[in-house]
Specification:
The protein is α/β, with parallel strands linked by helices and 284 residues long. It is built from 13 helices and five strands. It has a five-stranded parallel beta sheet, sandwiched between helices. Strand 3, helix 10 and strand 4 form a beta-alpha-beta unit. The termini are far apart.
Length: 284
């Protein structure tokens, strides 16, 4: 059963119908959800678990036991039915093209402005210091966060840092296991609750590496694992494409880190010139 294939008004009824079958921990989660389903849209899985006096795993089990794919599917079902206005102006594909384009651009500008005003200086400084001292930096991300991680790894490499990103989640997990105490695993995740990214982050931590993160939620399984995290983005719930504006915010934050590192990594001008020389060979 998929919330995208039926009316989201069924979600609270679906949860209510399964109340007798839930474990005590799942029942507490269900009770909190049923008190105010719309409020759950703006929560991370950790926040809902905390309010219920339960665990993130219990939240996920409650969702999957009723046929949902997970917590994000639960939130999307509620948003589809009850909060159509949460989808930004750019998602109104039937509207005037210019108005849609302006709406998307203004949403992105507003998200970047919010991120700039809320950026935590100690977190930024901690990440920069950790990256400068790292022997190796392995990025981890899936879905729409993967291209962001790939771009960051490439740009870190042009500065002379040993940074890598592999797209296959199994390879990410293996790479995380090969890290050591002088290394950094850098996770990029909008929700901070993606199974594959969390698995690699936990493995890197167990191997002795530091775990850094960029995410949109201050309370999530990823921020609980991370040694240092930058929280920037939007706690948005997109119906068609999740985290459109947050994706841009995360990319821009990583660009900011590259700019900071450029001024602190030795011989960056030489390395950037070498990069420019190589790229010139691929242009007419």
């Amino acid at each position: 059963m998929n919330t995208h294939e039926r009316s989201g008004t069924d979600v609270p009824e679906l949860i209510r119908a399964h109340l007798p079958s839930f474990s005590p921990a799942e029942r507490r989660v269900a009770d909190v959800f049923l008190e105010d389903p719309i409020a759950v849209i703006d929560m991370s899985v950790t926040q809902l678990a905390g309010r219920a006096g339960s665990s993130a795993a219990s939240v996920v089990r409650m969702c999957t036991s009723v046929g949902l794919r997970g917590f994000q599917d639960l939130k999307t079902g509620v948003a589809l039915a009850h909060v159509p206005g949460r989808v930004d102006a750019g998602a109104d594909e039937s509207g005037d093209a210019h108005r849609v384009a302006v709406g998307v651009l203004r949403d992105a500008a507003a998200a970047l402005d919010r991120a700039a005003s809320l950026l935590d200086p100690p977190s930024v400084n901690a990440l920069v210091d950790g990256l400068l001292g790292a022997r190796r930096i392995a990025f981890g991300a899936v879905g729409t966060s993967a291209p962001i991680a790939a771009d960051a790894a490439y740009r870190f490499t042009t500065l002379g840092l040993d940074a890598t990103f592999v797209g296959d989640v199994h390879a990410q997990h293996v790479a995380a296991r090969m890290l050591g105490e002088r290394d950094v695993f850098f996770a990029v995740s909008h929700t901070g609750s993606t199974f594959e990214t969390l698995a690699a982050a936990r493995t890197a931590k167990a191997a002795g590496a530091q775990v850094f993160a960029i995410t949109s939620f201050s309370a999530s399984p990823l921020t609980e694992i991370a040694d240092h995290a930058i929280v920037a983005g939007s706690a948005e719930t997109k119906v068609r494409v999740e985290a459109m504006t947050s994706r841009l915010v995360h990319l821009t934050v990583l660009d900011a880190l590259v700019t900071i590192l450029k001024g602190r990594v030795p011989d960056t001008d030489l390395r950037l010139q070498l990069t420019s020389d190589v790229l010139a060979e691929h242009r007419f």
